[in-house]
Amino acid sequence: MSHMERMPRVRTYLMCPPEHFTVEYAINPWMDTTVPVDAALAVKQWDLLRTTLVDLGHTVHVLDPVAGLPDMVYAANGAFSVDGRVYGARFRYPQRAAEAAAHRDFYAAWNFVAPEHVNEGEGDFAYLPGAYGGVILAGHGFRTEPAAHAEAQEALGRPVVSLRLVDPAFYHLDTALAALDDHNITYYPGAFSQSAQRVLAQLFPDAVLADRADAEAFGLNLVSDGRNVILNTEATAMAHKVRAAGYEPVHVELTELKRGGGSVKCAVAELRHA
Ligand SMILES: CN(C)C(=N)NCCC[C@H](N)C(=O)O
Fold first, then answer.
1. CA 146 to CA 118: how far, in whole Å?
2. Are strands 208-209 and 125-128 parallel, antiparallel or unpaired?
3. Per UniProt, which keywords does this protein have (predicted)?
4. Are 243 and 219 in contact (CB under 8 A)?
């Protein structure tokens, strides 16, 4: 299959090192408190992800980790920004609640909207600037409340397409769907309700479809700059799929972060300035 050359767009990201990473509570089906985490390996793998993004030409800001907040490494969950406006997070579980304030402080110079409704930032929101004039895809069912979708639309002034997640293994939108570039997505249909599947098929007829094995390998929990698709080393089949669609897969090993129920995308928030 031949494709026009995919052009990367330079991005700005926010990450938080897993200096205090542990699995000491279980709030998703991937977390097993009986299996110890290798914290030093987690930091090493995280840093390789950071340098991979920098080496591709992107800017990565680093948020100071806070002791006692072991999930803070999943920086994507702390807020959602579009064109200089930020919709803050409000976490579902008390164990993560204090992360929201650390993110809010980071966005002091931005136009920040504090949320009333539970939502977990880019865990459940994705933005496609080139589709339908700029559209937000939003997940609900496990973490983010549907009311937060309407709140995000008011805060960010972009249409929000609400999608119901139905499989607890894929509890955030970003475990089951990712933007590959400004226009197109990849997703695992089985993670969504029948109606949400119809909506996605209607809006994105050229989407790259993934299967359950891809999603279980966290292959959809990827970060793409429009050309380079960064995904974890376990996601080999997904790498073939994105390559066949004309993108360049870039693998990073993130075995430790999977123990907390996340991978590449969870660890990287995109900062979308105006
Ligand atoms: C891809 N995913 C799911 C994320 N965006 N975030 C990971 C959050 C993991 C954390 N232990 C939790 O359960 O909240």
1. 9
2. unpaired
3. Hydrolase
4. no
